[in-house]
Write a structure and sequence with these properties.
With 270 residues, this protein is α/β, with parallel strands linked by helices. The chain is built from eight helices and nine strands. The two termini are 28 Å apart.
Length: 270
């Protein structure tokens, strides 16, 4: 099997579980060496062993994306540990499920600090390096919540809409620099982050590896935006473009919001 990213050097935030974990393994299968960035060293060790089992190098870096200096050091460590860097996957994030009327401002700020400003800390830490070498790829895990807001995710939706807007502008401004900017919009995936949410049969939780494959596709084929899964996500955005009332109705009648199952929410990085 041809390895599409053979010899490439990739850094992933939120690499200890969920989408980040799946992407690290997928990148290794595609021939890349990987810098694993997150807060939980024990879980990072587990992911690193899976990357090494594919015959690829894994560098473990403990860092908090909300700390700009910590992120700068993480990028420097990734470059040193891997001998360079070709791809940065901005993936770390937390999730909060709460109706807008019940949210506190401090809760919204926390989500924004991790999901939005944490992502920007990564962008501004790695961008000078990519600009200097005139190549590289920055790919972010956004969300379909960044395309169509779904209750009761107001805080999370706010962060993802902000991320979507920033990356759309960044993509246009970096045209001609040799740097690719990609945005992945997953629907709900089967990760620890939403273990406490049961999804309807019409939109079941997806396999995180499907997002990992989308990240690879974005890098290899220079895809600007990818929705996962493609058809249902595009259907919802098309409906929203035609009529917000129609897309609101689709969300409501299909119970796309899902229902809580009583399990304790897990706010680990993706």
């Amino acid at each position: 099997m041809k390895q599409q990213l053979f010899g490439k050097k990739v850094a992933i935030t939120g690499a200890s579980s969920g989408i980040g974990r799946a992407t690290a393994i997928r990148m290794a299968k595609e021939g890349a060496d990987v810098a694993l960035i997150a807060r939980n060293r024990e879980r990072l060790e587990e992911v690193a062993s899976l990357v090494r089992a594919e015959g690829r190098k894994a560098v473990i870096i403990e860092a908090d994306v909300t700390d700009a200096e910590s992120v700068k050091k993480a990028v420097a460590a990734a470059i040193e540990g891997l001998g360079g860097l070709d791809v940065f996957h901005c993936n770390a994030g937390i999730y909060l499920r709460c109706p807008a009327k019940d949210l506190r401002i401090d809760q919204i700020r926390k989500i924004m600090e991790v999901d939005y400003f944490g992502c920007l800390n990564c962008v501004y830490a790695v961008l000078p390096y990519f600009l200097e070498k005139k190549s590289g790829a920055i790919v972010t895990t956004c969300s379909m919540d960044g395309k169509k807001g779904v209750p009761p995710d107001a805080a999370y939706v706010s962060a993802k809409f902000a991320m979507n807007g920033f990356f759309q502008v960044l993509r246009q401004e970096l045209r001609g620099t040799g740097i690719h900017v990609g945005i992945i919009y997953p629907s709900r995936m089967d990760t620890p982050q939403i273990e406490h949410v049961d999804c309807p049969k019409i939109t079941p939780k997806g396999n995180p590896d499907s997002v990992a494959k989308a990240v690879v596709k974005s890098v290899v084929k220079k895809k600007k935006e990818i929705m996962v899964p493609s058809f249902s996500c595009h259907l919802l955005t098309w409906a929203d473009a035609i009529s917000p009332s129609l897309s609101d109705w689709l969300v409501r009648v299909n119970n796309i919001a899902g229902t809580e199952n009583g399990k304790e929410p897990i706010n680990e990085a993706k």
